[in-house]
């Protein structure tokens, strides 16, 4: 699984820490870190929740081109 650089970039653009994003979607900071590193494959529901925070689509953040 590839690193999720798009998530990291979106988080930086919104000036959110991993902890702030984790709190917004009700997971641990470690979960966000693991997603960004590519060590964890989030559920579709978690992907949707993360997308809502950034007002982006699943295509924007998670699906391969």
From TrEMBL:
Record key words, sorted: DNA-binding
Record-linked SMART domains: HTH_XRE
Domain annotation HTH cro/C1-type: ranges: 7-61
UniProt key word DNA-binding: yes
Keyword Nucleotide-binding: no
Gene3D superfamilies xrefs: lambda repressor-like DNA-binding domains
Top-level division of the source organism's lineage: Bacteria
InterPro entries (alphabetical): Cro/C1-type_HTH, Lambda_DNA-bd_dom_sf
UniProt-recorded name of the protein: Helix-turn-helix domain-containing protein
Organism: Carnobacterium inhibens
């Amino acid at each position: 699984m590839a690193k999720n650089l798009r998530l990291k970039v979106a988080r930086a653009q919104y000036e959110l820490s991993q902890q702030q994003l984790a709190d917004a979607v009700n997971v641990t900071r470690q979960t966000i870190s693991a997603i960004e590193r590519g060590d964890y494959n989030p559920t579709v529901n978690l992907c949707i929740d993360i997308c809502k925070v950034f007002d982006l689509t699943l295509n924007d953040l998670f699906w391969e081109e």
